[in-house]
Amino acid sequence: MRIDYLEVIHYRNYRRQQIEPVEGLNIFVGENAQGKSNLLESMYVLATSKSTRASRDSELILFGEPSASIRARVNRIKDIDLAIEFDVSLVEKKFAKLNGSRHTRMADVIGQVNAVMFDSGDLETIRGEPSVRRRFLDLEISQTSPRYVHSLGAYRKTIEQRNFLLKEIRERRARPGSLETLSAWNVQLANYGSLLIDRRRSFLSRLSVIAAEAHSLLSDGRDLLEITYLPSFHVNDVSDVTGIQQEFLNQLAFVSDDEKARGTTLIGPQRDDVSFSVSKRDSKLFGSQGQQRTVALAVKLAERQLIEELVGEPPVLLLDDVLSDLDDLRRRRLFEYVGETGSQTFVTCTNLRAFPASILERARIWNVCEGKAEISGG
Ligand SMILES: Nc1ncnc2c1ncn2[C@@H]1O[C@H](COP(=O)(O)OP(=O)(O)OP(=O)(O)O)[C@@H](O)[C@H]1O
Ligand SMILES: [Mg+2]
After folding, report:
1. 34/90 same-domain check
2. pTM score, whole prediction
3. Are 85 and 151 contained in the same domain?
4. Which atom of ligand 1 is the closest one to the Cα of 350?
5. Ordered DSSP codes for 1-13
6. Which of 80, 200, 260, 359 is the most exposed place for a label (fewest CB within 10 A)?
7. For the chain, what is the radius of gyration of the CA atoms?
């Protein structure tokens, strides 16, 4: 997959900007707050219809203007040229256009462009709270599994109602028959919960293999990355969903008194965590800044590969501020690796000193200044 042409109009700090990227490496270089990340963000919106940074779409519109557009021409294996456009407005509903036809349901357009984005927020997956890692799992798995999305929604509803009942029991406000209701909720909880656990476990076992390879390349084989699923109860000895479901019910029986005393559900996917360890040391606790960044990057590169396997062609790679904290060796390894994947790549940086000359020779470079991007030397 390749973006051949990108145009943003009244988007963030851009009035109107056109860009013709190359197939390989594209670099946006400039001082802080000039508009480098904004360009990467616009391409991420093309893929997902949303920005990772904006809480509201209206934030994407140039101050003082009523609407913003992102237009692109994309080359894909299945249909050579796709014209895609997203329009955000202060008054109208957001819409997209695919080869000229208009869509207001974003589900119809998401995934037409496939992109993987790395930005500094991804470091939180490694060093943040467990809830960040659960969100990461849910986002990643949801992208490729509608069944997971459904189970997740059903599980959340079940837990809400079950907690409500447990609170009633704790406060001795429970009505007759509430213990029967509780055991019905238990079955439902174990039913949906076991699906989530099973998918998370298999996603992580696949991810950990690919991420370890990427990580070994980046760190020149010095550090071994291990990604381990940490569910709230052991499922190591159980191989299938039914087994997990049974174990879930066993464990619920085990913590039952405790749950009634505390008025809340104590086990299940809502308590899961993931550990990232480098050479047997937990990255969250002991990783240096550069090590944590390398781990986060390896995870993104693994995600890139998983998407490629799924859609049958390499997704676009968007690397925002990836170079800080990485030493020369890791930078060189990163661009060698990325070059070999065949993913069209966009990188932002504040200067070009970080790039090996051999890499720069093949790249197209834009100087970005005050909402204008100009081809370097052009
Ligand atoms: N809706 C908007 N309208 C106008 N300007 C905006 C809007 N949203 C953001 N900006 C401005 O765009 C500028 C560039 O932001 P961007 O995040 O792209 O910078 P950057 O070049 O990536 O900088 P850094 O090197 O610090 O990451 C910022 O000064 C920001 O205030
Ligand atoms: Mg930036």
Report:
1. yes
2. 0.91
3. no
4. 25
5. -EEEEEEEEEETT
6. 80
7. 23
Closest ligand to the CA of 373: 1
Question: Are residues 145 and 272 located together in one domain of the fold?
Answer: yes
The answer, yes or no, to whether residue 222 has pLDDT greater than 70, is: yes
Tokens of 157: 């509803």
**What are the angstrom distances between the C-alpha of 109 and each of 50, 84, 86, 262, 340?**
11, 9, 10, 45, 29
- Residue 87 is part of which domain span? 2-114+313-375
Check if 62 has its Cβ closer than 6 Å to any atom of ligand 1: yes
pLDDT tens-digit readout, 63-121:
999 999 999 999 998 777 899 999 999 999 999 999 999 999 988 888 899 999 999 88
**307-329: b (≥16 Cβ within 10 Å) or e:** bbeebebbbbbbbbbbbebbeee
pLDDT tens per residue across span 277-293: 999 999 999 999 999 99
Q: What is the pLDDT of residue 324?
A: 84
277: in domain: yes
Q: Any idea what the CATH number is for the domain that residue 69 is in? A: 3.40.50.300
Q: Is residue 333 part of a domain?
A: yes
Residue with CA nearest ligand 1 atom 12: 13
Q: Is 176 in the pocket of ligand 1 (CB under 6 A)?
A: no
| Whether 268 and 369 share a structural domain | no
For residue 301, is it within any domain?
Answer: no
Question: Residue 151: which of 194, 183, 181 has the closest Cα?
Answer: 194
Q: Are residues 22 and 142 in the same domain?
A: no
At residue 325 the predicted structure's pLDDT band, cuts being 50, 70 and 90, is confident
Please state the atom number of ligand 1 nearest to the C-alpha of residue 60.
1
To test the pocket of ligand 1, the residue of 14, 36, 62 to mutate (highest count of ligand atoms within 8 Å of its CB) is 36
Calculate how far, in angstroms, residue 229's C-alpha sits from the geometric centre of ligand 2: 32
- The answer to whether the CB of 12 is under 6 A from ligand 1 is yes
Does the Cβ of 35 fall within 6 Å of ligand 1?
A: yes
Q: Is the CB of 36 under 6 A from ligand 1?
A: yes
Distance 119 CA to ligand 2 centre (A): 9
CATH of the domain at 188: 1.20.1050.90
For 351-362, the pLDDT digits (tens) are 998 888 888 999
What does the DSSP 8-state code read for residue 107?
G
Judge whether residue 225 has pLDDT over 60: yes
pLDDT at residue 378, as a whole number: 54
Considering the domain architecture, whether residues 263 and 319 belong to the same structural domain is answered as: no
How far apart are the C-alpha atoms of 180 and 99, rounded to whole Å? 56
> Domains in the chain: how many in total?
2
Ligand 1 neighbourhood includes 13 CB (under 6 angstroms):
yes
Whose atoms come closest to the Cα of 29: which ligand? Answer: 1
Q: Are 110 and 131 contained in the same domain? A: no
For residue 292, is it within any domain?
no
